[in-house]
Amino acid sequence: MSIEINYKNNMSKSNSSNVVLFIDQKFNILGLKKHILKSDYLFISDLQKIKDNKKKIQIFDVNSKKKIILISLKNKISNSEIENLGANFYDISKEFKQNNIILNSDTIPNNLKNSIGYFLHGYKLKSYIFDKYKSNKTKKKISFTITGKNKPSIKELLRFKALEEGTFYTRDLVSEPGNILHPDEYAKRIKSLSRFGLKINIYDQKKLKKLGMNTLLGVGQGSIRGSYLVTMEWNGLKDKSKPLAFVGKGVCFDTGGISLKPAKFMEDMTYDMAGSAVVVGLMKSLALRKAKVNVVGVVGLVENMPGGNAQRPGDIVKSFSGKTVEILNTDAEGRLVLADALTYTEEKFKPKFIVDLATLTGAIIVSLGSEYAGLFSNDDNLSNQLINAGENVQEKVWRMPLHKNFDKLIDSKNADMQNINYVGGAGSTTAAQFLQRFILNKTPWAHLDIAGMAFSKYGGALNSSGATGYGVRLLNKLIEDNYE
């Protein structure tokens, strides 16, 4: 589906387009008289007597070519609630036979005059469809004409467009099947983003081996595909201030390796690279909107396969940090990829903070379902910033515990640590506790376990079923509110 937005003089009294009008929470239509035909006003006024005013969106079929849609706005309504209304309207409008929609911005209350941008943003986010491999693709085109004086500014529209493109790019990456988006192809796609002004470096297996990134390399050694670490730098400030750093797990397909997963639902493991996709989508958004901030994104790209050269349970590997890890389960692979990526990011870029994202544990889904990502952090300030940003854009996080007493669960008799907790319990926390050991210089750090948020079987407020793009808007909001 394509969406076109135009700006014209008042056309609300047209008889051949669907018209969207905004009214108060009590559905008071008196103020609409000057915006619609008298006959339409009387028609709506009469039918309103039997309408359910509990619904936030009311639809009136004026004739075979025209609907009038009334959208109720509360006196105190958040931007995210307006986005949700836009998404709800998408679900309704995709069934319209008439695809021309007039959006009358003059009916927006003065205290909410910036709402049109958020409304359309929600509409567009919900409209995403991944039909790349469908023989019959969706060809429907929706044309919005915005009338009135409460139009979003060019700057505001460019900001929303950058967020949408970054979010959609993340969803595209997560939606791709494993035979298409393997590590070799993924690295090429990231390299192509240099055209937006990102400085991109790709470290292949030869370079990674020289650097000593053996925990990352060990995960991918059973695959015929390469393993990579890719760095993306956006320098939006002329000074050389410390960058913000975002690190993502990019396991393009996870069979579990020698510790093979059950066959049921293994096809979902194409989205085990969602953490990396969030970082890539965020970097694209920041470059598109020319964010006034220095940021680095780092992703580890591997494929976890049970080949003849695959890593074995019981192997011991030396990480980039110098610490050794005993591999007790090859299906606890994401933390091994992140271990080297985290230490390298901290040492190479010396950032203000590091946020990593990963579809790391099934245990976090048991804890938080698909409502919150798990947040683990060594820094209260960074945690609070993430929590507040998540609430603002409704990509919520919930802080979970870290404590030195958990360390005994991942201490190994044969190496510095082991990659799983065989005692049982605290699966997400011990995974985060493992990652924390690779932050060597007390850099503020947060780990987001997004296993329950990256992919949705049933869809969410701003996305249909499938890849959600969770995290791009959250991290963009973190940057906007605190570091620009």
What does this structure look like?
The protein has 484 residues and is an alpha/beta fold. It folds into two domains: 151 residues, 3-Layer(aba) Sandwich (Leucine Aminopeptidase, subunit E, domain 1); 323 residues, Zn peptidases (Aminopeptidase), CATH 3.40.630. The chain is built from 13 helices and 19 strands. The strands form four sheets. The protein has an eight-stranded mixed sheet with strand order 7-8-10-9-13-17-14-15, with helices on both faces. A six-stranded mixed sheet has the order 1-6-5-2-4-3, sandwiched between helices. Helix 8 links the parallel strand 9 and strand 10. The protein starts with a strand and ends with a helix. The mean pLDDT is 94.
